[in-house]
Amino acid sequence: MKARVTVTLKSGVLDPQGKAIEGALRSLGVEGVASVRQGKVFDIEVESGDRAKTEALLKQAADKLLANTVIENYRVEVLG
Amino acid sequence: MKARVTVTLKSGVLDPQGKAIEGALRSLGVEGVASVRQGKVFDIEVESGDRAKTEALLKQAADKLLANTVIENYRVEVLG
Amino acid sequence: MKAAVLVFPGINRERDMARTLRLVSGREPAMVWHTEPELPAGTDLVVIPGGFSYGDYLRCGAIAARSPVMDAVRTFADRGGLVLAVCNGFQIACEAGLLPGVLMRNQNLRFICRDVYLRVETSNSPFTRGYNAGQVIKVPVAHGEGNYIADSETIARLEGEGRVVFRYSSPDGMVDPNWNHNGAINAIAGIVNERGNVLGMMPHPENHVEAAIGSTDGYDLFAGLTDHLAKAA
Amino acid sequence: MDLPVIPNEPPITPELVAEHGLKPDEYQRILDLIGRAPTLTELGIFSAMWNEHCSYKSSKVHLRTLPTKAPWVIQGPGENAGVIDIGDGLACVFKMESHNHPSYIEPYQGAATGVGGILRDVFTMGARPVACLNALSFGAPAHPKTRHLVSGVVAGIGGYGNSFGVPTVGGQVRFHSRYDGNNLVNAMAVGIAEADKIFYAAASGVNMPIVYLGSKTGRDGIHGASMASAEFDEDSDAKRPTVQVGDPFSEKLLLEACLEIMARDCVIAIQDMGAAGLTCSAVEMGAKGDLGVTLELDKVPCREEGMSAYEMMLSESQERMLMVLKPEKENEAEAIFRKWGLDFAVVGHTTPSMRFIVKHGGDVMADLPIKELGDQAPEYKRPFVLGEKPKPVDATAVEPPVGTTDALKMLLATPDLCSRRWVWEQYDHIILGNTVQRPGGDAAVIRVADGPKGLALTTDVTPRYCEADPFEGGKQAVAECWRNLTAVGARPLAITDNLNFGNPERPEIMGQFVGCVRGIAEACKALDFPVVSGNVSLYNETNGRAILPTPSIGGVGVLADFRKSVSLAFKSEGEAIILIGETLGWLGQSLYLRDICGREEGAPPPVDLVEEKENGDFVRDLILSGAVSAAHDLSDGGLLVALAEMAMASGIGAALDAAPGDIPAHAYWFGEDQARYVVTASAAQANGLLAKAQEAGLLAMRIGVTGGTALAVTGEMPVPVADLRKLHEGWLPAFMSGEVAPTV
Ligand SMILES: Nc1ncnc2c1ncn2[C@@H]1O[C@H](COP(=O)(O)OP(=O)(O)O)[C@@H](O)[C@H]1O
Ligand SMILES: [Mg+2]
Q1: Between D85 and D215, where is the model more confident?
Q2: Which of D414, D422, D467 is nearest to D637 (CA)?
Q3: Which of A50, D298, D388, D579 has the greatest number of CB atoms lying within 10 Å of its CB?
Q4: Which tens digit of pLDDT belongs to each residue from C204-218?
Q5: Number of domains observed in the structure of chain A
Q6: Which of B32, B38, B60 is opposite residue A57, by nearest beta carbon?
Q7: Which domain CATH number covers A8?
Q8: pTM, full prediction
Q9: Going by C-beta distance under 8 Å and a sequence separation of 6 or more, which residues neighbour residue D603?
Q10: Which residues on chain D are in Cβ contact (under 8 Å) with C114?
Q11: Which atom of ligand 1 lies nearest, measured to the CA of D154?
Q12: Which of A60, A65, A74 to mutate to test the interface with C (most CBs of C within 10 A)?
C-alpha cells in the first residue's frame, strides 16, 4: 500500500527556514505571503495490503524515527 | 487564506535521504516498509481571501523558489 | 583517561578528535562502532564526535541517536559517566534525549566555517575546569544546523541552573547578535545536562589545540578533563 | 562470429546516429570496425566512448606535447589521477575535473556531483583525500541567472565536501559576461597514499571476477539519446532520464570500504564509474590490461525496475566502483562492503578474447572489439588559426580617471577582486585538523600526516589574458600557479590542468586551445613543473558565443616543514616592505584598465620564465631561511592591491613611498607585470636581503614600511585599513543577498 506521513513543526516552535523563505519570496517579488512554515512528507510504500496494519506500522515509524515529537507533530494517511 | 504546497522528488531521481531512512527503519525493527521518498511541505498563510489569486500566487512561489523544478514536482492546495 | 570515541556511518571528525585526545592525554582512545551494544570496560569518557552521521539525512543526528551503542551511552551517563558531544555529537545527544532542545538550521541558512569567540560561563564543570569563568576563547565552528532552540521553560531552567557553559560572544566577551553566527537563543553554544556530566557544544575545540594549526584555545578543555579524570581515578 | 540477437531494439537510422553525437564518418568507422550495423546498445556504447569527453578526440594530439615527466612523477596523465612522490615514502594523488554543463542545469547537484566524481578519482588510486579546491567562473553579476548559479554551486560544493569530510581549502571565483550561458565548475581533489601502494585501472588475469560496488544504478544522467529512447516506451515520463543527485554519505562509506579492502590486499584493479559509468569503466579496465570483458547486466544492482541494457550501460549514477578482486579474497571484500551497507555484486569476468560483451536477459546486447573502443577512437587534427597578437597599451597614454587611493578603493570592491569569504566560509576548510594556511592567502598549506611535511595547493588562470593572447595566457596561468606556491615557501612539484574552451570545430577556438596548450607546455618545461593529470571541457558556448578560454591550473608544492611557510599578512609594525621583480607598469588587460578605465584591451603582460624562476627561487630561499615575515605574489590588480591585501589580512597599515618618477603612478601601482613578489623583513634583515638580491642580479627595492592603521601613499590621503576591509568584504555578501552592491 501507499501512504504518506506528514511531519510539521508544533506551533510555537521557531522555524528559521520558514522565516528565511518568507524573506526570500519577498525579495523575489512574490507579494502577499503572510507566513511560511516548512515541514516534511514521507511517501512510503508498505508491503502489507491491510489498511489498519499499515496505519499502525507508520505510526510506529513516525514515533520511533520520522518525527521528533518534542518539536514536531505528524499525520499518517493511507492512500491505498 | 491557508494553503499547502507539497514538493516531491520526480520519479527516478535518486533520494539518498529516503534510502537512509529505509535502512534506519529496518534496523529499528520497523518491518514491512518497501520504500521511502522524502519531500517537503510548506504551510503558507496568504493575505488575499481569493482562492484563484492564492493559487496563482503559490504557483509563482513554487516555481520561483519552493521547488527545484529540474528535479522536483509540486502541488498547491488551497485549504481556505 | 580512558576515552571511547563513537563512530557512526558518515561521522567524519572522529580522527580529529582521536588525535587531540591522544595529544593531550597521551592515551589512544578506543574507537567504538555504532553497532556495539557495550562500551569498552573501564571507559571514563565517551566522546560523540562531529560529522554527518547518516549524511544528516532526515534530521541531524536523528538516525545515529537510535543506534545500539547509544543505549550503552545512556546507561553510562545515568551512572554519572562523562560524555562530550561536539557538533553532530551535540545534535545526536539532543535527539537521543541526553540533552534538551534542538539544533535548527543556521539563521542565514548557510553552512558556516569560521573561528568564533566563546565566553566560558563557568569553570565549575569537569569540562571547563581548565578555563576561568568569563574567559573568552577562540575556536572554530563548521556546521549548517547549530541554531540552538528550546522552549522558554527549558531555556529558563538552563539559565537558572547555570547549565549554559559556552556562549557565542565578541572578542571582548560581549553577547552581541553580530557575533552569534547561527542565531542560537541567548547565544547558547554549549550546555550540560542536569547532572552536569554530559556536555553538548557546537564549536570544535579539538581543532584548536596546536599553535602551528591556528590556536591552542581548545587545549584546556581536554587538559581539564584529563586532570579531572586523573584525580577521580 | 555469431551476430547478436537484439530483441526490441530499433534499427539504426541516421537520426539516431546524429542524436548520439556521432558524425556520419564516425558511424562509417563503426561499420567498418564491426562489419555490421550496431545494436542500439552498441551505438550508445560507441557514443559514450567516442564523445569528446571520454576520447579527447580534438585535444589528444596537442595534449601529447605537454611535459609530463620528472624524477618525482610516479604516474602521469592517463590514470584516474596523477601521482607524485613527496618524499618519506608518501605520494600525493591529485586531479581537477569540470562539471560545467550539469552545474548550469542544476547548480547544487551539478557542483556536488562534480566534487564527488573527482574525490572518487583520487581514492580509487588508494589515496585518502586530504583537500579539495575549485575554480569557478560565472556570468556577469547583472545577468539574471548569476546569483542563482553562484548560490547553488557554492552550496553544492560545500554540501558534498563538508559531508564527505574533506577540507575545501582554496580556489578561484570570477565573473564575466562571456560565461553568461556557460558557467564553469572545475573541482580539484588531493589525496595522500603510500608511494608503493597505488592502485591502477588495468585488469590482469583471465577469468577474474569483476565486481560492482557502491550505490545502485538508476536512470541518472543518461544523455545523448534521451529523446530517442523515450520513443520506444509507453511509460516515457517514468523512464525519463534524470539529473544526477549526489550522495556524499554513500561516498564516504565507499571511501572507507575501498581503503579497507585495499589495505587488506584484496584488489587487483579498480576503476570508478564516472562519465559513461559502467561502459567506460569496464572498457578501460579490459583495454588497459589487454583483456576482454564480459558483463552480465542481470546481476547489476538497480534502483529502478525494467532498466534496459542501453540504460544500464549509459547510466551515470554516482558513488559506484568497478573492481577486479583477487578471487581468494572475494568473501573478505564482500564482508567489508556489507559492513558499510554498500552493494556488492559480481557482474562479469575478464576473458582472453579482447571482446567487450554485454549480456542481458539471456541475450547478447553488445559484442565489440575492446581495444578499438578505447584506442581507436577517432582522433582529429582540427584546423586552427592563431589570432593576431594585440598591441601593448601605452601606459603614458592612459589618463587616470580617479586618484590612486580612490582607484584602490574601487578595485577592492569589484566582483573580481573583492573578498571570497562568503564563498569559503561555506566550505569546511579546517576538518582533519591539518589546515595551516586557510583560504584567503596565496596558496593553502596543509600538514601531511603528523608533519612536519606540508603541501601547498592552489588553482589559477587569468582568462582575459588567454583571450587576448592564448600563448602568453597559457604561460601566465602556469607561472601564477607556481608563484602562488612559491609565495608560501613551497617547492612547486606538478600541476593538473582543466582546459575549458568553446567549440573546437571553429578554427579560432581551436587556435585558442592550441595557443594555450603551447604556453602551458613552455612554462611547465621552464619551471620544471610537469602536468600529471587533467581534463578537457569543450563546446562551452551558447549561440556561437564561446566562454573566455579558461585553462585552469591546479598546482601542488611541498614544504619539508610546514612551520616555515609564511602568510601574506603583515606581521608587525616598523618592518621594511620590499618589492622583488621588475615593474614596468604593464596596463594592457589589467583590471585597472578594465574596471577603472572601462577598457578591456591590449596585450597581456608577457611572462619571462627565466626571471620568473630566478625571482621565485630567491623568494623561496628567503622564506625558508626565515629572512622574511610575510610574502605575497603580485597578480590581478597589481602592487597596491597586493599591499592592501597584506594590510587587510593583519589590520596593520603601511607608509608607502611615492611612485618612482620614471613611470606613471597609476601604472606603477596597478600594472600587472609578472614575476613579482612583496615581502616584509625586519629593519635589521632588510639591508642584507637587498644586498643579497643585488649580488644575485635581481631587482629588489624598499618601497615602504609597515605600521599604523592606515594605508598611506606619500602625497595621498591615507585610508584606514578598516575602511578597505569594509569595501573588500562588502561586495559579495551584498550582491548575494540581493542588496545593491555598495558604492565606493
Ligand atoms: N571558490 C573558492 N573556494 C575556496 N577558496 C577560494 C575560492 N575562490 C577564491 N578563494 C580563495 O581566495 C583567495 C584569493 O583568491 P585569488 O584572488 O584567486 O588568489 P591569487 O590572486 O593569489 O591567485 C585564495 O586564497 C583562494 O584560495
Ligand atoms: Mg597570489
Answers
A1: D85
A2: D414
A3: D579
A4: 999 999 999 989 999
A5: 1
A6: B32
A7: 3.30.1280.10
A8: 0.94
A9: D389, D390, D391, D392, D393, D468, D469, D472, D588, D589
A10: 425
A11: 1
A12: A65
